């Protein structure tokens, strides 16, 4: 099923929760709606589901206008943060329940429920009650119940929030496997950037009810349209330095150093944003910034160095073999990928190119 939103808006009294949202989701794609708490992502999902009626705009499934259609007529399956399983029913009965409401003959409903249970790998748990299940098993039961009606659109609202970190990873991989196997159009709401980036074909990033960027996850990370996108994605977050563009250089306001650039822009205040992994120990004639190492932390196979450049404090992921020491002064090169300049006036990404080669790109 293809989903299309034309200027969709939702207002609660004087509060605009979603403002003029335009979105097109192709059949069989998994799209995550990502953003901080209160950004409008769940409201958007509820409008698509029919739980909320939009105050303005149009919603289409394929070419059919859906604005006035009730949820039960939209051919959707939905999984909530709270799995909402019936405690007195077995796993099998919970999965079969939607078919019972549709008055599907029992034999056909039983076969369909067992098929879905096998798909989500809980076929051996059909006689158990929800209280006898782990969090992951309850989540699989809720997914099977959502799928049993053969929906054309699958909706997830923060489905993994109640699981521990390891199980979250396992379940998001399972959701992606199931989605791929069924080739079902899926919308996945989450505040967790790692979830969104790992399983999605496209990510819709929202803030204060407004779309910030809609693109494949890697493109969003590598080519953020504005400072909000750049700062929301990444852990640890992107480094930010205040600067001013003078000719072919950006003067770093908190330091006595500058960065060479290629641009036609002049005399503009800006924010330089550099991913922690974009730094490296410079060699020879590489362009570099002089930094003092304040603290070193082991992060898996790499180290994270907390450094100061003038009055600015930054984080840099460096290779363990670099063997830097605390209180040491080092030269930091910057890879071109992971380097961005944003206008201070509107926070949009500026068309500025680094004017150095660097031996590490």
TrEMBL record:
Transmembrane segments: none annotated. InterPro entries: AAA+_ATPase, ABC_transporter-like_ATP-bd, ABC_transpr_MalK-like, ABC_transpr_MalK/UgpC-like, Mo/tungstate-bd_C_term_dom, NA-bd_OB-fold, P-loop_NTPase, Transp-assoc_OB_typ2. The keyword Plastid does not apply. Residues 3-233 form the ABC transporter domain. It comes from the Bacteria. SUPFAM superfamilies: MOP-like, P-loop containing nucleoside triphosphate hydrolases. Keywords: ATP-binding, Nucleotide-binding, Transport. GO terms for molecular function: ATP binding. The keyword ATP-binding applies. This is ABC transporter ATP-binding protein. It comes from Cytobacillus citreus. The lineage of its organism: Bacteria, Bacillati, Bacillota, Bacilli, Bacillales.
